[in-house]
Amino acid sequence: MRQKRIAKRRLILECIDEMRQEIEKIAKEIGFDLVGFTPANVEDKYTNRFFDWLEKGKEAEMQYMRERKSRQDLKKILPGAKTVIVLGINYYREQSPLEEGHGRVARYAYGRDYHKIIGKKLRKLENYIRDVHKGKTKAYVDTGPLLEKALAEQAGLGRIGKNSCLITKYFGSWTFLAEIITDLEISDKKKNSDTPFNICGNCKICMEACPTGAIEEPGVIDCNRCISYLTIENKKEIPASFKNMISRTKTVFGCDICQEVCPHNKARQKTNEHPELKDPIAGDSISLKKIKEIKSDEQFLNIFAGSPLMRAKRSGLQRNAKILED
User: Fold this and answer.
1) Domains of the chain: total
2) Mean pLDDT, all residues of the chain
3) What DSSP letter does each residue of 173-232 carry, written as one string?
4) What predicted TM-score, i.e. pTM, was given to this entire model?
């Protein structure tokens, strides 16, 4: 009897492994560079740290970050959730030299909004899971109330570095993340326990390079001081104490400094092979004069429709450009 149970369990595990391999194969055919699987629960070490971060007000004005229940229990998002499929896409590209009178744009915002690009790929993978394996799904691209870097680390895609970015073994932190929560039980517990590579050690280069000192301690970002937050999510006037710092970076949208100085990233600069990411809208940089001359929200939309720059709105982009001109 015991031998029959063991044989049945072995067969079940073989079927799960085969299903996982099929999903990984399809995901890569669709265009994902990284695929991992983790049980649909976030370990306490991640949630405790995140809630402590919130209690200290480090999320600044991003009130949507305060959704707690689903971050603790993914069954609040998808009843019966058992597995999270974590996916990654490399977005690294070389940047052209910054011209006089231009403001630098973060690499991720070069072309079309990645939410739209990855969203289409997710729908294809979801359709496969639903049609072939009859699984229920719920997908997110950096928008849902879940701790995606924690899930990615649990799934073995990489490790969270001192700059709070997920640093992957093959692409560094130049990686878009996305997730599919499913009621299929297909997590790879053995893979989850693997350590991809030594992450930061005693290195503090990113912490020392941050112009505003936003990386207060390893893995802890104070968004109130972060240039990415200040130039994108922040809808208010940027505090005077940060304006000179931002001006020196020549940044008009976002910031890549803590990623650019990372030794892991310098060793893993693989130009992305995704044609959807290669057509520029904002490009590597934007003429400050061009930004200043935008006269209406309609004109702003005509220039930057489909771009991540829509997040800052015309008022935010012109505010940032003025700082670089002053």
Assistant:
1) 1
2) 92
3) T-EEEEEEEESS----HHHHT---S---TT--HHHHH-TT--EEETTEE-TTT-HHIIII
4) 0.92
